[in-house]
Amino acid sequence: VLGHAGLTAGYCSYTLFAPSLDLAMVVLTNGTSGGSLHSELTHWLVGEVGGRPWSDPTPLSPQPPLARYGGAYWSAFGVITVRDLGGELELATERHPTDDGSWQPPPEPPLRARLCSPVLAIAHEPEPQRGVLIDFDPASDPPAWLRVGGRIARRL
Q: Cβ neighbours of residue 124 under 8 Å, at least 6 residues apart?
C-alpha cells in the first residue's frame, strides 16, 4: 500500500494506492485533523472493498537497541527529534519559526512507535495516530532520513 498526505490551512488530503488489490482512493477533508478519518477509510477500503482485512505490521519483540535512530531530522513543517523512550521511539516535532506570520499546521503530540523491522516502525500512541508508519533510510547507519506521513525528513 502506497500513500501520501497533504496539509494546508483548513484542509487535509490523503491518497492511497494499493496496486496488488487494484485500489486507489483520494480523501479530501475541510479540517486539519483529518488524519484519523484517512486511517479509518484506508482500513475500510482495504478490508471491505479489497477483500483483505487490514493488518498493521507487527512490532519486534523484544525491541532492538534504538540509539541509531535518535537525533534531529529536518522536515517541511519543523524539526523532528527522535529519542529512545523506555525501549520505544518517540518522535516530537518542533515547528519552524515564521517571520511573516504565515500559517502552520497545529502542533501534534509526540508519536510513540515500535520497530517492526530495522527500517520500519509503527506508531501506537497517541490513539488518533495509531498505525502511522515511519520508514528509516535502509542505506545508511545511522539513518540519513526518515519518512512519516509521506514526508521525508533528513538527519541534521
A: 59, 112, 113, 114, 130
